[in-house]
Amino acid sequence: MKKSEVLQLPSMPLQSPTFPRGPFRFFKRQYLIIGYRTDPDAIREALPEPLEPEGDEVSLQWLDLPDGEGFGAYSAAAQVIPCRFQGKSCNFITQMYVDNTSPLAGGREIWGYPMKHGLAKLDTASDTLTGTLRYAGVTTATGTMTYKHTALAEAVDRESALLGKTQVTLKIIPGVDGRPEIAQLIGIRFTDVQIIGAWTGQARLELHPSVNCTLADLPVRGVTSGLHMVTHMTLPYGELLHDYLA
Length: 246
Fold this sequence. Notes:
The protein has helices spanning 3-6, 40-46, 101-111, 152-164; strands spanning 24-37, 52-53, 57-68, 72-85, 88-98, 115-117, 119-125, 128-135, 138-146, 166-174, 180-188, 191-200, 203-207, 222-235, 239-243. The radius of gyration is 18 Å and the shape is globular. The chain is mostly beta strands. A hairpin with a 2-residue loop joins strand 4 and strand 5 (88-98). It has one domain: Beta Barrel (Acetoacetate decarboxylase-like), CATH 2.40.400.
């Protein structure tokens, strides 16, 4: 393979790239988002400088992604910390777990999403929307919400504002000598967002301590909100916000 052909590859391995070039369009992307209060000191510990805390609330999010261009079908769970960067409100993705190699590799290599392999599941059981996460054979998170109690007209503005926020990730990629070759804060904004349905309702959340899935390090001190939505959206490439090696 010639050098020019190598430089055209979207990802490794060269015989069968793990993911294609973006941007990536998602259809019927479903969320369960449970907001909760936690320990402010734990939030400060989990936020890399120069990000600044914004209150004492965080969220745990389950995602069911049945149709992602280039990535296929998968499920995910993410812990999200509202914060500020240069005075602007944003969301820091502190942990994320997925069950599919293609988005796991692409998420880490392109945008710096903090993805590890875990078994997240978002499902409707009778009259309850349920989210579970299993890591290393152990259930580390369980979330439940009433199913479609408060409909779109009352929830759409709140959901649109949430999806419009910049997501921030910490992208760290070591060089061959083990030292960081890339150490950056990356900003990501969804585009072409279409909200198919959005609902609010009562929710509950339980986190279990695990040494390699440390969601419980931001302990639940009280659930504040339950949000459920179904969307189409596009995940474009991100932008460099801060370079720790500059």
